Amino acid sequence: MAAFLVTAGVAGANVPLTMVSADPFTNTTSQHATELEPDTFAFGGTVVATFQVGRFFNGGASDIGFVRSGNGGASWDAPGFLPGMTFSSGDPSSRMSG
């Protein structure tokens, strides 16, 4: 009879958090200072992150934000927001979801 013991090790990384964007919108219909549901995509040293900005309490957001790093996250370009997608950034929709 053989017995196996499998344990998961704790990663010892001490990585600082880096703020790469802030909610610029001020409409009264959504909760501000919020950026959530992030996702990242990477190829080589290029990393692109996307996220909802200005979350509505019952779903959706004022806009979708994005930011890019060309050196594996050591530094980040200025963030951007999809233009002309919602009433906060120009019409046509009232909310975005990513």
Q: Can you characterise this structure?
A:
By secondary structure, this protein is an all-beta fold. The chain has a domain at 26-93. It has strands at residues 35-43, 46-55, 61-69, 80-81. It is elongated, with a radius of gyration of 18 Å. The model has no long low-confidence stretch (mean pLDDT 82). 0% of the residues lie in helices and 31% in strands. Strand 2 and strand 3 (61-69) form a beta hairpin. The relative contact order is 0.20. Strands 1-2-3-4 form a four-stranded antiparallel sheet, with no helix packed on it.
Task: Provide key terms for this protein.
about 100 residues; mainly beta
Task: Give a short summary of the structure.
The chain has no helices and four strands. By secondary structure, the protein is an all-beta fold. The chain has a domain at 26-93.
